[in-house]
What does this fold into?
Amino acid sequence: MAGFESDHRSEEAHGSVRSYTLGFVFSIVLTVIPIAIVRNDWLEGTANAVMLMGAAVLQLIVQLLFFMHLREEKSPRYNLLSLIFGLVILLVVVAGSMWIMMFNQVAG
Amino acid sequence: MASNHSAEPALHAGISQEEHHDHPNLEEMRTFGFWIYLMTDVLIFGTFFAAYIVLRGNTNGGPGPAELFELNGIIVSTFLLLASSYTCGLAVLAMNKGKKQALMVWLALTAILGAAFIGLEITEFTHLVQEGATMGTSAFLSAFYTLVGTHGLHVCIGLIWMVAVILQLASKGITPVMKRKVQTISLFWHFLDVVWIFVFTVVYLMGVS
It folds into this structure.
């Protein structure tokens, strides 16, 4: 009984062929859409950047949920917390650098 | 951790109950430690992305992203890495079902796809250098080679690591320690795919559009 239970649990905790294939299909779709946008010049400027980054962020979420099993983590969710911490620092560094350099008169 | 109050017989019981997740066991702690390392890697790539975004306009009179990048080859390598992320997941599934042979085949396939990705990247870099776009040409290219090269280096290390894990699996089989090793390399591999998605988007797609 105990063996069956733990088998069941470990299978649940590490996804199935279905969830991996679903994640793979989502990733392909989220890669093909931005390629199509760029290839056909559908969008320009800010709309282009927002769509491309949006697709990339969605694909990040797909990989985290379907491939890296962030969804099944039990509390306390230290993996999720450290990820959020990392992403906050990442945003501060990237967005902060971009913001500051907008006012760089030397580089123009 | 769970077994530090127990004598030797209980220690064996502790090993057979490894699948019970009531107490954090050592292998789970190690996987979590590796996750923390991945978060520090997020910061490394974050700073390189920041440098690239800030410097991508500074071409010093040399070629810019739109003139340099060949999107076709990059799209192929993107799908190679995406497929390898999938096969790596299938390897973990095979491991959870106790299928050693399938696990090794999926891991080997993942490594082959990763090697093809690196092959394409080396081809691209040599092509760029032959066109005169070296690391010293402009601030844009310095930031470009640092960012993309660091990712490529990670993939190379992942390849060596994966071959080592396959060899160990051949001799040791699926033990709790080997399970953790496959678990960590698969986390590393998925992480590299995620980083590549952003390289592909920020450097290549936004570079040519």
Q: What stands out?
A: Helices of chain A lie at 2-13, 17-39, 45-67, 78-101. Residues 1-12 of chain A have pLDDT under 50 and may be disordered. Chain A has two domains: 2-72, 75-108. Residues 2-72 of chain A form one domain.
